[in-house]
Structure formats: C-alpha cells, structure tokens
Specification:
By secondary structure, the protein is an alpha/beta fold. Helix content is about 40%, strand content about 15%. A hairpin with a 5-residue loop joins strand 3 and strand 4. The longest helix is centred in the N-terminal third of the chain and has 20 residues. The radius of gyration is 17 Å and the shape is globular.
C-alpha cells in the first residue's frame, strides 16, 4: 500500500496578507519539493466535501457560526491578533478539516498505508470556542473525534512535535480519557501553556517542555519519554500534529533540530507503535516558517511514512 498525500488548491487561496509568516508559499514549497522527488509510493489526493456536523463534535456551535459570518467577501478580517481570514479562507478551512477525514477513512479502509495532509490554515492552537495563533478550526481534534465517533476507537494518540504547544488540542481533550495528547515544545514560548504539571483529568496530557537551544541529541533523549508513554497507552491510531518549526533555521523559535531529525522522529514512532497501532497513522501540517527547512523536513517525514 502507498502513503497518501492529501492537499487542496484552496490552501493557496487563504490569504493572510503581506509579511505574514503563515502564507501560501509554505504549501507551495512542499508541493515543489515533492514533485521533484516524485516518490513512487506516494499517492496524491484532494479532499471533497464532509459532513459539517463533525465540526460540532469539537467546537462550540456559536463559535462555528461566528466564524462563518466573519469570512469576508473582500479584504481581510482578524479573528485575533495573529489569525487573519480572507474570502478564500472559508474553503481552505473546510478543506483542511475534510483532508484529515479523508485521510482517516482511507487508512481505515486500507486504501492508504498511512497519510500526510499538507493543508492550511493549521489547527492546534484553535480551542473549543476561539481562534488563535493562525488557527481557525482544530483539524487534528476534529479528526480524533471523528475517529472515536465513527470507528468507535477507545485509544487515540496525538503526537504534537510543533515547536509551539498545542493549547487548543490540550484544551479540547483535557478531560477525554480516550485521547492521549503528547507535546514536545519550546518553553516558555508562545502560547504560554504546556507546563509539565498540566496532565489532564485522566493523566492523558503529557507535556515535554524544552528550553531554547535544545539540540538534536537532547531532543531525542526527551523523545524516549514520548515513546514510553505511547507504549503505556497503546493507541489504536496515532495522529501527528506535524509542525516543522523546531528546525534550527526557523525564524519564530529557538530549537535546533535538523531536517533529517524528522525522519528519525517519525521512524522511531512507527517502529515503536507497530504492534498495537498496526501502522494506523495520519499526519497533518501545523507550523514551519522557513520555506527550505519546511520543504526538507516534510520530505524527511514523508519518506519515513513511506518506508516504515
């Protein structure tokens, strides 16, 4: 079976304005890199429509309606100080959610071995009832709730290796014993959450705060704790919240990973979880703001998904 690669043209129409770090060039850099590599075991797909009721399993219905009304017909509108929407943002936001649902269905139905969703806007800062940090809907959280609702899974893990803590994902699943949320992130750093004492109502939140300047060896020492936690929980399905901004070249943060480290993170996770997870893995793009580092790191991540 092949690895699925899901992306939508609408991702390029989410216009955040001149100078905004979360822009269409991020997706373009990934697409250009992968087209050059031309992986034979990578199958490209585009999302279709999805049942919008799945958004209501994750977000407050008033918030969903407020966002719908806020999408402008021209120009731009700020949902918060960092989160900008434009006329193309509605389709992009809905396609991002649709992508992870398509990825889940394709993995569960054995169409894909695993899958990566190259979409924007990202999602892990979006909370139950508010947009934040470039994020409108929490894509990975919608995916986890969809998996639990449709496929009746009891143990779902989300591994968030974005350099920023996924406050939204933690917020949504803080009291949900079916979801294990694990985050490695720079701390203290935006958004200010993610201390190690934040453990969730069922010990289902596992934060690994890392100091600025953390290098690859130090990161992998910390990542052993991620793998140990996975082995204790034994998830039936794993999501990656795949932010590539812990890269040494990223302009927004100060962790010093190299592009090939993302191959190793992915490989170690897949190998460790094989017995109980059976390769049921979907990854979705979060951050990463140096275009070359983002494209290289994504390629390494996908290469590991294909090979393992």
């Amino acid at each position: 079976m092949k690895t699925g690669f899901i992306s939508s043209k609408s991702s390029l129409n989410h216009d955040t304005g001149d100078g905004h770090p979360e822009n269409k060039h991020r997706i373009q850099s990934i697409l250009e890199r992968l087209k050059k590599r031309n992986f034979s075991n990578l199958e490209w797909s585009e999302p279709g429509k999805f049942d919008e009721s799945y958004l209501n399993n994750t977000h407050n219905s008033l918030y969903i309606n407020e966002v719908k009304k806020a999408f402008p017909t021209k120009g731009q509108f700020f949902l918060d100080g960092d989160t900008v929407i434009s006329p193309g943002s509605k389709e992009a936001s809905y396609d991002a959610v649709s992508s992870i649902i398509l990825a889940i269905d394709s993995v569960k139905k054995k169409k894909f071995k695993n899958a990566f969703c190259a979409v924007r806007p990202p999602g892990h800062h979006a909370e139950y009832d508010k947009a934040m940090g470039f994020c409108i809907f929490n894509n990975v959280a919608v995916g986890a709730n969809y998996l639990i609702d449709k496929y009746k899974l009891q143990r779902v893990a989300i591994i968030d290796f974005d350099v920023h803590h996924g406050n939204g994902t933690q917020n949504i699943f803080y009291s949900n014993k079916k979801v294990l949320y694990i985050s490695t992130h720079q701390y203290p750093h935006f958004p200010g959450t993610g201390a190690s004492h934040e453990k969730g109502s069922h010990n289902n939140i596992f934060n690994i705060p890392l100091p600025a300047g953390t290098n690859s060896n130090e990161y992998f020492d910390a990542y052993e704790h991620v793998l140990k936690k996975l082995n204790q929980f034994k998830p039936e399905f794993i999501f990656f919240s795949a932010g590539f901004d812990a890269h040494k070249d990223d302009p927004l943060s100060n962790i010093n990973l190299k592009s090939q480290d993302y191959f190793e993170i992915t490989k170690r996770t897949l190998v460790t979880s094989r017995d109980y997870c059976k390769g049921n893995i979907v990854s979705i793009l979060e951050g990463g703001y140096d275009l070359n580092a983002l494209a290289e790191s994504t390629e390494e991540h996908i290469k590991a998904l294909i090979e393992y």
